[in-house]
Amino acid sequence: MKSFIQRILYAGIHRALSRSLMRTIVLTNALALITIALASTTFLHSLIRNHGRLSVSSSINLGVMVLLCGILVLNDARRFNLSRFILSVLVPVACCAILFLPRWKNPDLFHYLPRSPQLFCVILATSIIPLMVFSVRERRLLIPAVGINILILITIDPTLFYFSADRHGEYGFYRYFGNNLTILAAGLFLMGAIVFLKNLFEDFELLNERLIDNLNDKNAQLEKNNRDLYRLNQDIETQNEEIQAQSEELMQSQESLMMANHKIEEQKVELENQNELLEHLLAEKKQDLVQTNQQLVSRNSELEQFSYTVSHNLRGPVASLLGLINIINLTENEDDKKHILKLIEQSALSLETVIKDLNKIIDIRHDKFNINERVELEEVLSVITESLKTFIVENNIAITHDFKHGEAFVSIRAYLSSILYNLISNAIQYRSPERKPTIHITSVLKDRMLILEVADNGLGIDLTRYQQDLYKLYKRFHDHIPGKGLGLYLVKQQVEKLNGSIEVESVPHQGTTFRILLPV
């Protein structure tokens, strides 16, 4: 509830606005929200009093609540001037409507006195809203809003007299001031006091902004002085390096005199180096054996998972086929046979899909696509977006890229194309319905490694829950969206075939970033 109210209060707020305008927008939203609450109370009271029937006042209250909600919508659409102007005049105009609409056709049914003190108090209280939501410098909007409120405050009493049964009596200058002097004086006093305080506050705020600007200028000057000091320190370090270089030259001249004495020691060091080299070679062989054993263990684990997956995924369609064949042998109804044949066809197609998926995995394991060639990322991405063009257009997908490593490099094109295709198609498939889908692809070369990133703003993955199963075969993380759970498994296998690695960052309901690191 608290976060919902905060979202309403901060509707329309963004960083480009000034601090004073942001405060005014929050105040406008707060006043609109408070007025909605008060109008809702009045509306419910009127419904209860009239036994559920809509009266003129309750209808106007309902319209006021709708317009107040429209103020929040206008602020969210950044139509701040229009929303503040409507808020400034809405309540007084609504009060006038509540007073005069019943009197319009039948003024003889109403007496001039007693008047409704509640509505007069509401009009008097809300006449200061323009001074609260507009700056003194916004005269183009402030003066009309204040003028409308003052005009309503001045003219409401004689208008009430005119639309009443007492209008045939005398209504003179002294009677007007006698009835309205207190209200007018209170209204002028409130407006004058608020104008004075607001002007004083805005002057202090302007002074404060100037002080902040001065502090920023001084900070900039201090940063410039620091940069100058840094340059001086670098010059001193350069001089120190030159002195050190001269010292090293003197030491080298001394070392040349000692070379004869060092030859025996060099031969000894050479023998030690040969021994260390032999030990290093033995350590490398040992490390290779350890890595080979680890690879065998990993392959055995993968083969166990693969065999389990094969048996599990083939068992279902085969069992279904056998069961349907038994049923078709037992039935004699032709319609039932046709229906069972359709089910057999579906099971066969399911079995064919599983076999095709397994063929893809076997192709990767056997290095079927192991031809190295020159690859350009822009060309690969263009082919992928053309093949996915129908899905991109139907779902209004925005795909952007920034290939800082623009030149071609040598790799296996089929694997790289499959990696990008699976990541982009996953980003399209698992898009968020709450916002426009965007996919951003970047590449950069760092330490002879190509870093390829595919980032989206889709549904995201709960890594704390699915981290261990992320790249396993037939694992899926969004059951409400159709899929086979094969894409990330293929991406992982192909990245490893390219001697690379894959990383992932994801936040549920915000998006996912896959980072591929490939040696160049």
TrEMBL record:
GO molecular function: phosphorelay sensor kinase activity
Swiss-Prot/TrEMBL catalytic activity: ATP + protein L-histidine = ADP + protein N-phospho-L-histidine
Domain of life: Bacteria
Entries under InterPro entries matching the protein: HATPase_C_sf (IPR036890), HATPase_dom (IPR003594), His_kinase_dom (IPR005467), HisK_dim/P_dom (IPR003661), HisK_dim/P_sf (IPR036097), Sensor_kinase/Photoreceptor (IPR052162), Sig_transdc_His_kin-like_C (IPR004358)
EC number from the UniProt entry: 2.7.13.3
Coiled-coil ranges (or none): 208-295
Top EC category: transferase
Histidine kinase domain location: 309-520
Keywords: Coiled coil, Kinase, Membrane, Phosphoprotein, Transferase, Transmembrane, Transmembrane helix
SUPFAM superfamilies per UniProt: ATPase domain of HSP90 chaperone/DNA topoisomerase II/histidine kinase, Homodimeric domain of signal transducing histidine kinase
Transmembrane segments: 21-48, 54-73, 85-104, 141-163, 183-201
Protein name, as recorded: histidine kinase
Native source organism of the sequence: Chryseolinea serpens
